[in-house]
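Predict structure. Input: 3-oxoacyl-[acyl-carrier-protein] reductase FabG, 260 residues.
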Amino acid sequence: MTDGDRTGPTAQAPLGGSVALVTGAVGALGAAICRDLARDGADIVVHHLRQDDEARALCGELEGLGARTVSVSADVTDTEEVAAALSRAQDQLGPIDILVNNAGWMESRRLVDTDLAQWRRTMSVDLDGVFIVTRQVVPGMLERGEGRIVNVSSQLAFKGATDFVAYCTAKAGLLGFTRALAREIGPTVRVNAIAPGPIDTPMVTPHATPDWVHARTRDSVIGRLGLPEEIGPAVTFLVGPGASLFHGQTLHLNGGGVLG
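Output follows.
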């Protein structure tokens, strides 16, 4: 399908006619972001890593919300896989207008128990992957004169955390990437980030005893885990028409876990 063939939801939808790529889309957080983008009128490229069944189910759900969808599998650390996947996606839906860099890797490991390969695994997914995907879509955004990017960082980039030195380092690096890229390609392409606190997802559920939750939320104002559906609206705001003054900013979606 060519760009001229693109059709979107109603003109009243704030993201109507836009194509959004969400990496790591089939996880709880990514899926919630996809749903909110679809509700606001965007068509969705559902990126995953060999999770075909989950991606198929999510696409069906998003199509029920009125979005056109395409599912693509690629390792974000592999430049050739990413290029091929995005080529297929754009052939079907058209150019990427919105990029949400949500795919990530988190591993609990003390620094003294971390070897270089483990360190590089975290950096490869959380930083290299963002670079590779962003580098793939930015030229088209600049050529068309418009684009919006949201990078998913973490409150741990600000707070730090025992056993997560590599992850905290990568997520802090992502904020530097966001600010520098905002200056480099803005205002043509609007680049921002979000920094969620601990979110209640299936990954967390097995560990979420009252003591575990208290330990991770005692510094927050709300004193509870966030919910995936509380994250999507901030993303749709940042890529929507109401955020024209937001460039290189980070929204702290952590219930007051980080203030300032």
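Residues 1-11 have pLDDT under 50 and may be disordered.
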